[in-house]
Write a structure and sequence with these properties.
CATH architecture: 6 Propeller
CATH topology: Neuraminidase
Structural class: mainly beta
CATH class: Mainly Beta
Helix content: under 10%
Largest sheet: 5 strands, antiparallel
Bound molecules: calcium ion
Number of helices: 2
């Protein structure tokens, strides 16, 4: 069996895995931590991911970067050969409120490259998401402040100026190129999710959440909108609306298979509009095929909280959904983009300490 690399980035200060964190975090949270605490962004490197035998699978831990933000949003992407990562670093040449800056680093099998700035436009970045193609090209999407903020600016100003930006890494030049904002408005655009099959010059699907009322979570009165843009291998299409979501949106994920043009979004929504109750958190699905979106369809119905859906295409092309049902890390898999009934649910891990997303 061919050895593969498994890499896990984590924040040593919290020991909280945050590979695919989607929750919105305010810049002031980061800014308030600047200069106060030395943090490390680390990587665990396992030489053979197909075994849990530590003798066969020697693991090393190395610091990727020191003095990082406590919530530095590390994200990994692989094309089956190479692995790259993006995260938020602390650009200390900027004023406190603006100093979160997205960077990337590539693993060459031996070491991580020096962090490389994705687009140093002077404005704060959050939640970078990464897609790595077969030719080592990369697409990155992130939350990007439209303006350089004054340190006295309030949180509402920051929320209203949040946009979605994209850039492409050119493996020929070794540079991030073509950075552009896909949104330009006066309301919140957050939580980008980028997906594709990772082929050469591949297409990609980018989704994000907009809220015209600047509501961080949304509600029936202040609905969220799922927005999207397709990358055709060269350019990004003008953003369009997939669907309105009249519920608080807790978390979501997107997958897209460029060969078939099919995609799937799974969201955890709080369906009674009351965030203090979690038993009504349910998963909903939304399918995509060649530019058309289906309707919002409820996947779970029981009175246990369902949250933090994560989607992937496995090496055989199966759709795999993993999420938390109360204290049970659960999964469903399907050979198509239609997920099976809940009776097919498998429990990966059960944690008696209770629910946590
Ligand atoms: Ca920026
Ligand atoms: Ca915006
Ligand atoms: Ca609720
Ligand atoms: Ca449920």
């Amino acid at each position: 069996m061919r050895p593969t690399h498994r890499l896990v980035t984590y924040d040593l200060s919290t020991l909280t895995n945050r590979f695919r964190g989607k929750s919105f975090c305010g810049a002031k949270t980061f800014a308030s931590e600047v200069g106060r605490t030395l943090r490390l962004l680390g990587a665990i490197i396992s030489q053979n991911a197909r075994t849990t035998d530590t003798a066969k699978s020697p693991t090393t831990i190395a610091a990727l970067q020191e003095a990082v933000f406590p919530l530095s949003d590390p994200e990994l992407a692989s094309n089956g050969q190479a692995v790259s990562s993006v995260w938020i670093m602390d650009n200390d040449s900027r004023t406190d409120i603006n100093r979160t800056m997205a960077v990337s680093s590539a693993w060459n099998g031996t070491e991580w490259s020096q962090p490389q700035t994705i687009n140093d436009d002077g404005t704060a970045d959050f939640h970078p998401q990464l897609l790595l193609s077969a030719d080592d090209a990369m697409l990155c999407a992130w939350e990007d402040q439209k303006i350089v903020l004054n340190d006295s600016d309030d949180f509402e100003t920051m929320v209203a100026n949040m946009e979605i930006s994209v850039a492409r890494y050119n493996p020929g030049s070794g540079q991030w190129e073509g950075a552009q904002r896909l949104t330009d408005n006066n309301y919140l655009d957050r939580s980008p999710a980028i997906s594709g099959s990772g082929g050469q010059n591949d297409e990609a699907l980018l989704t994000w959440i907009s809220n015209e009322s600047n509501d961080l979570i949304g509600s029936s009165a202040t609905p969220n909108t799922l927005r999207f843009s397709r990358f055709d291998g060269q350019t990004w299409a003008t953003p369009d609306t997939a669907i309105e979501i009249p519920y608080p949106l807790i978390k979501y994920d997107t997958i897209f298979e460029s060969s078939s043009g099919k995609g799937l979004v799974v969201m955890s929504l709080d369906i009674d509009d009351d965030l203090s109750t979690i038993a009504d958190r349910q998963l909903f699905t939304l399918t995509y095929q060649n530019g058309s979106w289906g309707s919002l369809t409820q996947l779970t119905t029981d009175d246990l909280p369902d949250d933090n859906p994560q989607l992937a295409l496995d090496p055989s092309g199966n759709v795999v959904l993993v999420w938390l049902k109360d204290s049970e890390l659960s999964s469903l898999s399907a050979t198509s983009f239609t997920l099976p009934e809940m009776t097919e649910r498998q429990i990966i891990l059960s944690d008696e300490s209770g629910y946590s997303n």
